[in-house]
Amino acid sequence: MSFNLKLLNVENNARAGEFDTPHGTILTPTFAPVGTQATVKTLAPAQLESTGANLILANTYHLFLRPGADLIAEMGGLHNFMQWDKPILTDSGGFQVFSLAEMRKIDQDGVTFRSHIDGSKQRLTPEIAVQIQEKLGADIIMAFDECASPYDESYSTKAMERTHAWAIRCLQAKTRDDQALFGIVQGGIFPELRKQSAEFISSIDFPGYAIGGLSVGESKIEMYRTIEIVNKILPSEKPRYLMGVGTPEDLIYGVQRGIDIFDCVLATRLARHAAALTNKGRLNLMNAKYSRDPKPIEEGCNCYTCKTFSRAYIRHLIMAKETLFGTLLSIHNIHMLQDLMKKIRQAILNNKFGEFSKEYLSNYEYKPGITADQIIYESRE
Amino acid sequence: MSFNLKLLNVENNARAGEFDTPHGTILTPTFAPVGTQATVKTLAPAQLESTGANLILANTYHLFLRPGADLIAEMGGLHNFMQWDKPILTDSGGFQVFSLAEMRKIDQDGVTFRSHIDGSKQRLTPEIAVQIQEKLGADIIMAFDECASPYDESYSTKAMERTHAWAIRCLQAKTRDDQALFGIVQGGIFPELRKQSAEFISSIDFPGYAIGGLSVGESKIEMYRTIEIVNKILPSEKPRYLMGVGTPEDLIYGVQRGIDIFDCVLATRLARHAAALTNKGRLNLMNAKYSRDPKPIEEGCNCYTCKTFSRAYIRHLIMAKETLFGTLLSIHNIHMLQDLMKKIRQAILNNKFGEFSKEYLSNYEYKPGITADQIIYESRE
């Protein structure tokens, strides 16, 4: 099939559209929760669906190592294996190899590394990354890229060059026409490298483009500037995916700068650390002040958790170390982001995103002392 | 309200009936999953409901220590706190005080002990146990009893005598008429003590009676014999509750001997240890032979887990340490026992329980080397 972004409205740089995949239409802008090991942690698919989630992400690196791509292919592919019949995106494994794997050796052809699970020697190349992703069978698959330390210009240059060469090889290796292969822009925090990368990658006819290598330790200002530089160059008629970003404020700032797709582990990671995302900032539900609080996490929220349980009950589950708290908070946190994306999309369709975002951010309290990107960096899986 | 067991049919000693409570009718015989800390571990109420569960058990000892009975009362009672609007049974705390608490000192008036959570000094008496259970607000509450080591005749005698004196005090302490207080028979494995205890406890007009102190290390033969001795004495028109027992075979052997209500942590505990209950025996889903098995845990099972996922996927979740496996296996295991109880009840109503149980047990494979009661003993919470 051919993958096209149908833009329904554009307000300044913010875009509302539709992107068809074999497992349904993605309404953009969209936020994808992360199901690293073929499960969005602690949630059954029915619970995940109740959050409004549509596109989800799974990690090639993890699934390649365990249970293996052949096994998943034998079980009918990732959709059938994990029983998610809506769109799935797999990353290429690049990010995890460079951040998780031990003893990695990079050459022009690919990367040799040791598994974090059993220490076994493994190899990923552009061709192998595509082959694995074809076996997994996601709707959107990613080119194999190299994510460098963002402040190291010499390494960022080399990594970008390899990423470019590998992008071409990924496209050549691809055999399935029911998967959209996205190219990835790299280049650290260096404007000239980012320009060069955006120009090179957008010269290749991918059905979508991603910005990689952000939310890995750089400042917010550097992140937003990079998005602006890259999105000026990427073709406006193709979807743009900002990898690994997903705080409420970054979703708004990203959409303002022309991003259509986001993914992040933050919502589920915070949930497992007893924190709730709300439209006014974060709540640490371990706090004793919630012990007798009969209110839901966020008043007016329509998620299962808020419609059913008090803060007092959720705090009790946290204190009693009952894993159900992670499930209930994951439902709420993902729902909160899905709901925000729906409001953002509706605002763009009504040409009111400018007003909406101003109003939203004026009510939103940043967590003092910790910047969102630091938290994301720690929580990248 | 008055609590009455309506017996619909009796086949030999097996009984099918109805027992009305303020939160609905319990169809007997029934199996109650255990929600120790106001949650059946890993399950949201909607998932628990999908298993067919009706009556559930919560533990007074745990809830008394955390979050406290006053807090739960303030949150509208246990039903509202945990959002389970079907019948709930609370135990008296006796079993846990004698098996979990540290430095316990027993006197004629009650027990002083240290909390396993923070080491704080605590006290339970018959009056306090009833008061706590009135604050929790379950439909069925239990008299405060003392569970002795089953083979110690001298201790069993003393514990039984205290249990008898405490049963009277519990009845006197009770102030709510919307809760059914059940008396408990003790006496270890000693037939004379069990007779004496059954006679004494059944001379007090409780709306139901329980057999305590079983499944704590005694043999199966001793357990079944004790049930027979006690049930010959307990009045046939009142419900009989066998505490802490819940393997498939024991549900059948218990019903054969006149039991109406069971509870056990086995189903959920096994789930967290990667084991599935089936009508043919247990499966250890960690076993490599399931890694590429596309079949559900049990063919023909109508639970969410079996209707949705393969053994291969569940095994992957186990190996990847994704807590979702505990949720999916808990759903299956509880559903399996609920389904068995439905079949047992229907068989009794059709006067076919004799045939049914013979047929069922001939297809059921005991786990070799470990007797079910040993496993239950280890897993009592």
Number of helices of chain A: 16
Helix content range of the residues of chain A, please?
40-55%
The greatest interface here is: A-B, 40 and 39 residues
Number of DSSP-assigned strands of chain A: 16
The domain count of chain A comes to: 2
Query: CATH H level of the largest domain in chain A: which superfamily?
Result: Queuine tRNA-ribosyltransferase-like
What general form of chain A does the structure show? globular
Mean pLDDT of chain A: 94
Return Rg of chain A in Å: 20 Å
Unreliable stretches of chain A (pLDDT < 50, length at least 5) are 367-381
> What is the spatial order of strands in the main beta sheet of chain A?
4-14-13-12-11-10-6-5
In CATH terms, what is the fold-level topology of the largest domain in chain A?
A: TIM Barrel
Strand content of chain A: 15-25%
CATH architectural arrangement of the largest domain in chain A? Alpha-Beta Barrel
Our measurement of the CA-to-CA distance between the termini of chain A, rounded to an integer number of angstroms, reads 32 Å
